[in-house]
Design a protein that fits this description.
OB fold (Dihydrolipoamide Acetyltransferase, E2P), 5 helices, elongated, DNA polymerase, domain 1
């Protein structure tokens, strides 16, 4: 398991740092243990929470305030100032070290994040570019082959997509939220060679 220097809430990995440093402001709870022990920071005990960050989609271990109530799928503030329910961000986790319950909830919560952040993901469809002369980055999303890719490119040349429903109505592509969520899940679980949505 990768270990991260978490005492300063900077998500920095031993031996190197992510540059530039960008901090999650919000995270969604995947699982929590009321009287747990951190798997990252020695001697840290209390409400141990496994969560996924909203912006960078990284898996995180959080320390919650003991007398607060938490629920699966809840969005909690983890930014620098004004935390109400979270004491600290203990560090980042990889997929293999989150709880089984967190793994079970992950697809559902990812879909929720995609829906809440629709503009962010529709912007991807409006701006995605070719990776090579033969492969377009749109094709990295499950369910998008050459036919749908061509339709998406043709339609966005006419007018940028405004929403998932606009994209679906104009191209015939269905279940856009689920397709994006599947790609994000595959990136988080290590099933992809490169990431287009999840920060490494």
């Amino acid at each position: 398991m990768s270990r991260y220097n978490s005492n300063r809430d900077n998500y920095s990995r031993h031996g190197d740092t992510f540059s530039p440093r960008k901090f999650e402001e919000y995270a969604y709870i995947l699982d929590y243990i009321q009287n747990g022990k951190s798997s990252i920071v020695r001697m840290r005990e209390g409400v141990i929470i496994h969560a996924i960050g909203e912006e960078h989609l990284t898996l995180l271990e959080l320390l919650g305030i003991s007398n607060e109530k938490f629920s699966i799928g809840e969005r909690v503030y983890i930014g620098k100032d004004g935390r109400e329910k979270i004491i600290s961000v203990l560090g980042r986790l990889d997929y293999n070290h989150i709880s089984q319950s967190a793994k079970n909830e992950l697809p559902i919560v990812i879909e929720k994040i995609v829906n809440v952040n629709e503009k962010r993901f529709i912007d991807y469809f409006n701006s995605a570019q070719p990776m090579t002369p033969r492969v377009h980055s749109l094709e990295l999303i499950p369910g998008i082959g050459k036919t749908y890719m061509k339709s998406i490119l043709d339609e966005r040349d006419k007018r940028k997509f405004e929403s998932f429903s606009d994209l679906q109505n104009r191209t015939g592509l269905r279940d856009v939220t689920k397709l994006i969520a599947k790609r994000i899940y595959d990136e988080i679980s290590g099933e992809t060679r490169m990431n287009i949505f999840v920060r490494k």
